[in-house]
Amino acid sequence: MTDTPRTPPPTEAAHHERPFARDPRRWDRERARVLRSGQVPDSTCMAACEPVLVYERTRWGWLAWTVPSDGSTPEIPHQVGMLAPAATGMQRLALRWLTRRPAQRMALGRVPGSLRFSAAAVALISLLTGRYAASHGIPVDVVLPATLLTPLLAERLPDWLDARAVERVRVVEGDGPCRYLQRLATLHTSLVEAAADSDHCELRRSAEVGQHLLWDAAGLLQTRDTRAASVDLIARERLMFQLAHQVAQILNAPAEDGTAAANPVSAPGRPLGPYPPAAPPTTDPAPRYTPTPLQKGTFPMPQPGPSPAVPIPDVYFLFAHEPYYPAAAQEINTTVVAAASLLHPRVRQPDGARIHDRLTRGRRPGEIVPLSTLTHELDGGARWPEVGDWEAVTEDLLQLIGDRDCDALNLDLPDIARALVCAGPRSEVRAVDPKSGVHRVYRPADRVEVLGQVGRQLAWAEAGSPLWPGDGLVLPLNSAGNS
Known about the structure:
Mean pLDDT: 76
Helix content: 40-55%
Number of strands: 14
């Protein structure tokens, strides 16, 4: 198989990024219906009010969206439900029951609680029926229990059916898990649609495997958080990308004799199946050492320019953080680690693996990439949610370094140098001398000089012993096509 693409094609990316992406008018109608009902939570009851969900059914399950009170369109579903692979008729019936429109309820005046309109209607009908039955000679001890129990059954029976139906599907809630499943579902929907429009056996098999991956991922997220299940989640996401890439190859294969090519390009010895490949064992780490902090001083020679857009393993990640003091009169305010440290299982995953993938693309061997450079490349930080939680990742890296589970170059950068590496590659830093009032502008060339100084310090610290990224690293995303 050729290298797996890092992102799906634009036509695939449209799936599930917003409610009813294929039918925007449907979302407008559903939102209008919810707004007319007056059930949208506002600032006065955000904590107490139950969100009203709009269900978008799919061939693999459903996405449940909330209706924001400000009229905006939600970006992350409130809930994602999964059907089991090869779902039975009863499971599909359970899906339709769980994704029905929420029942309308009526308040009971001063009595706390509420009652379904359907239960109130059943109560009225049972009362009239009971009165009619009693007038025709049916004993009261038969009519009265039936009259009282029928509305109670109408009120409680849907809750009992909900509890039974939810046992036949897997439901996941929470921004992190739902965002992850939303990303997988975007890829899987393209597999399902390709299989539905073709009788190609490989396309049908890819859709079946994708359903297994979604089902397994939902099971992991039901019992564990994204960090605890990071290794398994990354493996499933990688395999889903491979499936999407294989399907794209089949669909785009050149026609021969009026028919599409039948055999896609595939990796030898790697048959499709419901379970992802295991991560390979790691090698023994290099000897550790304690690097000397970079002292405050002048700026040296500049750093080389960028390289072609291919993944480079020997790249370093620089990030600034709140200062800490490991020894008297020693301040550490910036840290450099090997890019592979982002793959450590104690780092928030799969966020760390996705940042690593972004970090190692289009770099030169030995290049030091500041966090601010990634922010600049991600449209000034607007696209960070697509990649991962960089704050949680850097906090985990600091904890990893403090526990001596990976090597790092600890730096004591002067204020201007630290401000430059925290600014983007095209930004300027303006400083003023409080005594003389003289202004000075530090430009991108000065930032390059700071990175050059850090590079020389790193080369000295790594002499004979490269930075050790830690043990038990997960497989990089950018090696999925070659693993």
